[in-house]
Design a protein that fits this description.
CATH class of the largest domain in chain A: Alpha Beta
Shape of chain A: flat
Radius of gyration of chain A: 29 Å
Oligomer: homodimer
Number of strands of chain A: 14
Number of helices of chain A: 17
CATH superfamily of the largest domain in chain A: P-loop containing nucleotide triphosphate hydrolases
CATH topology of the largest domain in chain A: Rossmann fold
Number of domains of chain A: 3
Distance between the termini of chain A: 22 Å
CATH architecture of the largest domain in chain A: 3-Layer(aba) Sandwich
Chain lengths: 461, 461
């Protein structure tokens, strides 16, 4: 890490509005750095007692002054270094939430010597001061961005250091491996093979297995964080769009029953029981000579590949053994697939008096019988979706959900592949995997990496 | 006041998100009521020390639990009754600002026995518990809504109790008057006129003058709070809309020079040096036989009546003595008017090499020479606008800026008129003015009044 650059970061006192933008009952501004308390005292006067005595972790009611005129009545707290979020001297000002007041206080803090914080700079300082590692810092951003319970749980776990400990443990094993290799090199000059080479290869294998598990967890982790992609497919006019609308409406009904159920209308993403589902409506599948239509169908197959759950919708009033067999055949690679869940949705049950037994037999797959139009059994479909995810769920395992981590782990794995080859050919190889794992927690880092991570934060954190 | 209703208000513990809606680095939730601390302790665990010991005005870092699973790392503070905003037991929770976390904490607080606060209910409780009077409560709402420095200053002054004291002082004088009237009534039975009747009439006159001052201050107070209406008028094609755009652009340029200068694009309201101006573009004024056009012109005259500042725009390249005299004659009622400022804006100076001396003479009024198109001298116009307001400014006088107060004062005044008439005809009259003034500060109030005031607040305050 370029430490000279880091110290210039640390030298000045930064400030920002920490609460959401806009008008609220109250708003909170934050200062971090050596001058925090000194800057505060220039504009703040306690309601009671000597202004010089401001203790850490106490709350003080008082007046904030704008050039001797009262600006606001505020609550102020001070966190003495290192017992603060950033590890530095931190001051928080809780003011009335008018935009005018928030803005004016920010200006006053800057007038008195603070500078506007960059996005994520408070958390960057917490990292640079050793309060948290890079994984935990990234978890803070994920925590703030989390929209569903699963995304939130992953962020909390990561913030608590579970993933950090895992990576540190693997790095420790790698260091052990490095010392074994060192030992072998000493012997190799004498052209004697080190007695316990098998210990090395076993260790290498163990580390590789662990890393591979983490690498493969990314698919699920990423999907749980960003929303599980669900492709709705089927022939034209079987009611795919009606079904989508019905699900989205169902969700509105769910809101009142299940807490935390919210919908992002723009993306057609809904949260059911803490899981975020991202619905993808697709063009109807049929054989066509129309180029444009075929392009649409091609895109549908692309979306099927990206989806974790495939809802194949058929019109129950227009189904026969032959057509269903064709479907099952067409999608057989997806039906028996550990990565994907293939569900049959038999729509338009309102058109039949009852579902004929022979149809039930045809639909040998897990099938949900619904009427999208009349909004019947949509809650069963929602349940089935949740169960499909629960079945593949993590059981407390660590899930990699960040592409930076995924890449570093992939690079570490391929570096270990090189080491393995080196073993076989008796060519000593650098343990670059150590570097890659260190980059995840921030034990090894660069300003470039830090910038790219923290620039995605919001200001004030 | 209906006290039985008020106690049901007070019996339960209320909670709300107090910071602006949406995602931020942090968010603050607030609890008020007897159960605040008890509810907190069910979901919160201090990082260090015994959870039972939570002192007032201290900050505690700890974990918030959602059914034994960690929900967030939070900072918690407790304000022991009566040393809190509401006067009740108050708890504040500062959490990570994800919408999921904010929402979930709110749900947990409700699960544990709090109920969602109504808009303004925290401030209502502060009023009901005698921490602030009604004027100060209303000032809190104004403070949060304030967009300009003047609106903010008026709110702060009112929150500090300046207006309250004034009303209380007037009420005291009214009570004195009441006792004098009482005395006179005692004597009147003996058909002897009370010796010092002049004392009574003098007192009545003094109170009336004070109330009249307050009543008339409403025009300025209201305008300063909501934005000073500026009508831009003139013949067609003299460049009124170009001038408006130019002013709005000037303002953008001003942003970097003068702090706190902001523009509300939707309403074409801009803030210059702390004053909010509300610009009203109007239809061109000319004699026409077209009915629709004449309706537009009629509306222009309506807007002129409502405006505090009238900018009469003329095309300097197309002006002569005759036409100007006509203008001055047409608007003479507004030119010498204490309520309005009439300014001449001579536009299109870019069309002339220099301004001919004889034109300057014609434009005997205060005139700003500009080129809206080339954005010349617009800063001078902005300066002139600010000076026009400063000249009529309050000099620390109390300005009534709330229509509820304006109405109560008007009613008090007319009630005093009745009293005066009663004097003249020797008919004793109730001092209803006492009631009207009491309603302003809340010494006399009803649930209806309280509801109408606090329902306009934001939730969380």
């Amino acid at each position: 890490m370029n430490n000279s650059n880091s110290t210039t970061y640390i030298a000045d006192t930064i400030c920002a509005i920490a609460t959401a933008a806009g008008r609220g009952a109250i708003a909170v501004l934050r200062l971090s750095g050596n001058q925090s308390l000194c800057i505060l005292k220039q504009i703040f006067e306690k309601r009671r007692g000597n202004n010089a005595h401001i203790k850490s972790h106490q709350l003080y009611l008082g007046t904030l002054f704008d050039n001797e005129k009262e600006l606001d009545e505020v609550l102020v707290s001070y966190f003495k270094s290192p017992h603060s979020y950033t590890g530095e001297e931190v001051v928080e000002i809780s003011c009335h939430g008018s935009e005018f007041i928030q803005q004016r206080i920010l200006e006053l803090l800057i007038e008195k010597g603070a500078r506007m914080a960059k996005p994520g700079e408070f958390t960057l300082r917490a990292f640079l001061n050793g309060k948290i590692d890079l994984l935990q810092a990234e978890a803070v951003a994920d925590l703030i961005a989390s929209q569903s319970k699963t995304a939130h749980t992953m962020a909390i776990d990561q913030m608590r250091g579970g993933f950090s400990n895992k990576i540190k443990e693997l790095r420790k094993q790698l260091l052990h491996l490095a010392s074994l290799i060192e030992l072998e090199l000493d012997f190799s000059e004498e052209n004697v093979e080190f007695a316990d080479r098998s210990q090395m290869t076993t260790l290498l294998e163990t580390i590789k297995i662990e890393l591979f598990k983490l690498k493969t967890s990314f698919r699920l982790g990423n999907v749980l964080k960003k929303g599980i992609p669900v492709a709705i497919i089927g022939k034209p006019n079987v009611g795919k769009s009606t079904l989508l609308n019905s699900i989205l409406n169902e969700e509105k009904a769910l809101v009142s029953e299940i807490p935390g159920t919210t919908r992002d209308a723009i993306e057609d993403t809904i949260v059911i029981e803490g899981y975020s589902f991202r619905f993808i409506d697709t063009a109807g599948l049929r054989h066509s000579d129309n180029t444009i239509e075929n392009m649409g169908i091609e895109r549908t197959y692309e979306k099927i590949k990206q989806a974790n759950i495939i809802l194949y919708v058929c019109d129950i009033s227009d189904v026969n053994s032959e057509s269903m067999e064709q479907v099952l055949n067409e999608f057989k690679t997806y039906i028996r697939n550990n990565d994907k869940t293939f569900l049959l949705v038999a729509n338009k049950i309102d058109r039949l008096e009852e579902i004929p037994a022979h149809l039930k037999e045809i639909l040998e797959l897990e099938t949900v019988f619904v009427s999208a139009k009349r909004h019947e059994n949509i809650h069963l479909l929602a349940e089935t979706l949740v169960n499909a995810v629960k079945n593949k769920n993590f059981n407390g395992d660590i899930l990699v959900n960040n592409s930076r981590h995924f890449e570093a782990i992939s690079q570490a794995l391929s570096a270990l592949g090189q080491v393995e080859k080196g073993f076989e050919n008796n060519i000593p190889t650098d343990l670059m995997a150590l570097y890659h794992l260190g980059a995840i927690t921030g034990e090894v880092t660069s300003d470039e990496i830090l910038n790219s991570i923290f620039s995605k934060f919001c200001i004030g954190k």
